[in-house]
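Is this the right way to post structure tokens for a design question? Let me know if I should format differently. Anyway, here goes:
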């Protein structure tokens, strides 16, 4: 028989046991390092199960058993005060598995205020073209007459103008989300209520304009 192949995580857990005498916590995790009937590491099933559970759910696999992975996370927090770090890791993994984390759902508007502008900025800088709707607008602006039977003869000036109009549309939508994020942040000076109200009204007008453009051009936000 061949010697058992060493597993780095198993060795790390043994080392933790030796120094901190916490075998009750780490042994439960070590026991899960085998493989299930499908040949996949059981520990992976633990992780996926935790991602599907709510934070208040203390059971494991629905059988009322304590979850080793959750215990290991708590132990790490206790020893190294890494609660924020481990939470960020958990949210990162959740986004990888299902595209969003539970924290993103606590304030969906705030999450989208940050996410959608990032997507639009990337599209603006990396796209390979833009909708012909903006070319048609540029063509008409210079006095071109559309022909329903033939495609317009676009010039380089039309293409440049069309690109300019497309980028302006993207920037206006981004500005709308940024304005909404500024409202939610609520970091303004409240001592001057008149100035506060004027700033809020201006941001809401920018946000509404961005939403109108997002609704109008939603179908063409692709590359």
């Amino acid at each position: 028989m061949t010697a058992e192949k060493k597993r780095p995580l198993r060795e790390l857990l043994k080392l933790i046991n030796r120094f901190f005498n916490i075998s009750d916590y780490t042994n439960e995790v070590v026991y899960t390092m085998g493989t299930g009937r499908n040949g996949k590491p059981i520990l992976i099933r633990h992780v996926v199960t935790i991602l599907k559970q709510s934070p208040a759910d203390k059971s494991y696999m629905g059988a009322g058993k304590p979850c080793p992975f959750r215990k290991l996370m708590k132990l790490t927090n206790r020893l190294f005060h890494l609660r924020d770090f481990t939470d960020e890791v958990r949210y990162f993994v959740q986004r990888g598995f299902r595209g969003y984390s539970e924290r993103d759902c606590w304030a969906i508007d705030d999450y989208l205020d940050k996410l959608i502008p990032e997507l639009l900025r990337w599209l603006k800088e990396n796209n390979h073209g833009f909708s012909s709707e903006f070319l048609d607008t540029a063509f008409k602006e210079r006095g071109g007459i559309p022909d329903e039977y033939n495609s317009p003869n676009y010039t380089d000036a039309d293409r440049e103008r069309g690109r300019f109009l497309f980028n302006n549309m993207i920037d206006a939508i981004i500005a709308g989300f940024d304005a909404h994020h500024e409202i939610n942040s609520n970091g303004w000076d409240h001592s001057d209520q008149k100035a506060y109200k004027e700033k809020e009204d201006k941001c809401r007008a920018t946000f509404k304009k961005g939403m109108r453009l997002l609704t109008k051009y939603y179908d063409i936000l692709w590359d």
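Format looks fine. Someone answered above. Worth noting: The chain has two domains: 8-104, 107-220. The CA atoms of residues 173 and 214 lie 6 Å apart.
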